[in-house]
Amino acid sequence: MLWTFEEGLDWFWSTGTPGDGWIVFTDVQGNVVSFDTRNPSVLWQQHIADEIFRGRGVLSADGTKLYLPGYKSGVIRVLEAATGSVLPQIAVSEGVGRLPGDLITDAERVYVMPIMAGARVQAIDAENGKLLWQYPLPE
């Protein structure tokens, strides 16, 4: 073992989101922690109040934004990858929904699989947060 992090506040439920020389983990109390993978240290920590993270996040195509699936809120939480600064969130669906799973990206779109919502799969524009399509189609 090379290094451990003992200051975690709660369960790290999902796998980490890797970047260039760093990796981010989230927990079920809304904490986000970025670790330097070359020099064992914490780069930054952020707390998103009243949120639960269970799924893995993804990075924007240019690596500057971190998208995280908000289980409790049902929105995509967006952080600046280098600093952890909170950016505007992305609403996923109308009404109540949750995001229990991992996010997926193809660099242009972020894909989510909400539960407790009408849609089962949604494609969100990674740049402007607009809904591009969903399945099943609205009636």
Structural class: mainly beta
Major sheet details: 4 strands, antiparallel
Beta-strand segment tally: 12
Strand order of the largest sheet: 1-2-3-4
| Mean of pLDDT | 90
Helix % is under 10%
> What shape does the CA trace take?
globular
* Oligomer designation: single chain
Low-confidence stretches: none
Tally of DSSP helical segments? 0
Order of helices and strands: EEEEEEEEEEEE
Taking Cα atoms only, what radius of gyration do you get, to the nearest Å? 15 Å
CATH architecture: Beta Barrel
In the CATH scheme, the class would be Mainly Beta
Strand proportion, as a percent range, falls in 35-45%
The total number of structural domains is 1
